[in-house]
Write a structure and sequence with these properties.
Strand order of the largest sheet: 11-10-9-8-12-6-13-16-15
Distance between the termini: 21 Å
Radius of gyration: 23 Å
Length: 373
């Protein structure tokens, strides 16, 4: 693992003592918004707080996709609605102004007579893009925008990447030995079709938590052939991600877990003969010789997949790294040694987290140094 500038000039959270009241309430918005992680996509996971005379009287975060937005939940949580006419609502992202699966949040704020709206970040989505702010101002609301803007950008990184870059937010993940290998020589594995664990059980449980937080998980043919993974969240509570598997020549046997029908599977292949397709999967045609990472991003964007976690193998991970199409890398380092085997991917990034999980080390990199930590 090669890391560029291992200790860049990092943005660090300001001391609470130095924060304004607006910033303190916005931090609370960000905090509660995280309760929506893994359930709101493709909607952003927004947090909202309502304050009256210096006291929080209502809070809400975005419900699972199709449900209420954060502002609606916050307003509904206020027991005495008469207080709203002298209150301030704080929200991490500009309130929506259009009809989707739910009515516009800006309309409800106006209807309830909330006179002041404090917003962390303007919504870049083409259906909002300042229209919510405009509607609120036209109705006579006092609107303040840009409170803890960078922190709100980092919180909404998945949504913003999807809107601005027209691709999923991409998280790379792998585990490597202390001497830098992700797999032993095939001779050491024989015909064993189950994972050769590098990390401890606590780290593996954390990976299942991560899977529950992203709508998609992507792996290559070699990973499936070697490990026959289930790619689910059996060691955590949450929704199983869409399994996205690269199988250029449809080598993976139909008896493998990815075809068990227990969760959705999308196979990316170059085989156009539908007679070879498995009924427990969907298929997309990909040109494996041309800009594979870009093609996959386009497919997943069209599939409305806001974020993915890529778990291997080496060629798949390295193809995204080499194309510079990635946002986070989460790298475990175990304590065992292989001596020889398949080397870990080569990556350059900015360290934003170091932590220890029992005897494993976890390093988190970001592809830019603006990330808030």
């Amino acid at each position: 693992m090669s890391i560029n500038n291992p200790q860049p000039n990092k943005k660090v959270p300001p001391s609470v003592d130095l924060l304004t009241n607006d910033e303190i309430y916005m931090l609370r918005c960000i905090e509660i918004a995280k309760y929506g992680l893994g359930s709101t996509a493709p909607n952003p996971m927004v947090g909202a707080v309502i304050v009256h005379n210096g006291k929080i009287i209502g809070e809400g975060f975005t419900s699972a996709f199709g449900g209420n937005h954060a502002e609606v939940n916050a307003i509904h949580s206020v027991s005495d609605k008469s207080l709203l006419k002298d209150a301030t609502i704080y929200v991490t992202l500009e309130p929506c102004s259009h009809f989707g699966k739910t009515p516009p949040c800006a309309d409800l704020i106006i209807q309830m007579g909330i006179p002041k709206v404090v917003i962390g970040l303007k919504d870049p989505h083409e259906k909002v893009a300042g229209n919510g702010i405009k509607k609120l101002k036209n109705a006579g609301c006092i609107v303040k925008v840009g409170i803890l803007e960078q922190e709100c950008k980092d919180h909404h990184a998945r949504f913003l990447t999807n809107c601005n870059k027209k691709r999923p937010y991409i998280i790379l993940k792998w585990a490597e030995t202390i001497d830098g290998y992700i797999a032993p020589d095939t001779l050491l594995r024989g015909d064993k079709k189950e994972p050769f664990w590098i990390t401890n059980t606590r780290s593996r449980q954390l990976v299942h938590k991560w899977r529950s937080e992203e709508p998609g998980i992507l792996v290559g043919t070699n990973t499936v052939m070697a490990d026959n993974p289930q790619l689910n969240v059996r060691n955590w509570t949450g929704k199983n991600p869409l399994r996205i598997v690269l199988d250029r020549e449809l080598k993976i046997p139909s008896t493998y877990h990815i075809f068990n029908g227990k969760q959705q599977t999308l196979i990316c292949t170059q085989v156009v003969d539908s007679k070879q397709y498995n009924s427990n999967a969907r298929y997309k045609i990909v040109d494996f010789e041309a800009n594979l990472a870009q093609q996959l991003c386009k497919i997943l964007y069209e599939e409305n997949i806001q974020s993915i976690i890529i778990e291997g193998g080496l060629h798949t991970l390295q193809s995204f790294i080499d194309a510079n199409i990635w946002d986070e890398a989460r790298i475990f380092k175990g304590t065992n040694r292989f001596g020889t085997g398949l080397s870990a991917p080569r990556i350059k990034g900015y360290i934003t987290q170091h932590s220890q999980i029992l005897n494993d080390q976890l390093t988190v990199l970001h592809n830019d140094q603006e990330h808030y930590i």
